[in-house]
Design a protein that fits this description.
2OG-Fe(II) oxygenase, 9 strands, 6-stranded antiparallel sheet, alpha+beta, globular, Pro_4_hyd_alph_FE2OG_OXY, about 210 residues, single chain
Length: about 210
Amino acid sequence: MSRISLDYDAFESAPVAEKPFPHLVVPHFIGNDDLKAVVSDLPEMKSGGSFPPEALKLTPRVAGMIADLQGPKLKALVAEKFGLDLAEAPTMLTVRGRTREKDGRIHRDSEAKLVTILLYLNPRGEDWASRDGCLRLLNGPDDVEDFDVEVTPAEGTLLVFPNGPATWHGHRQFVGTRYAIQLNYMATGRKARYELRRHRLSALLKRLPFSG
């Protein structure tokens, strides 16, 4: 079984955009052929919410890709791109398979999360033509239509941004299959330690009978 290739060269050559806040978008961070393989391997998730990988029955190919995402190479590249010290930052990774009516509301990520990385594992198709479910980087907290950047959650696209007081994001309501991996580099304070403990507990509790 072939290993999934992550396009670190494309990451290194991608520019950091400054509006509406510093971020980086890497189209096809996973190439089309590898994406097809990943999509075919992903477990079906009939319920919404985010799941730690330990709570899912993953194929060796997907498990290997997740291990690579949490490895030192990507962390070093992110640190260099944004001028951050992430050497001691723990990682936290979750997988999402379905988006619900309540998902996508405008928010900022927790201050316990130093950096947010989103990897979209959906094929491009009619689902995204309406732009529902496309992540928007917003100019403020009040209007999902007041956006500067819109990211189609498909074709192995990678989005990276350090969290801050103005990192508002969200999407129009979308209900349906929407595979994404979220990886965070965490702070080391009390709140971050609490989130990591909750993450580990979730991994123990979410044993999905439909994930095989």
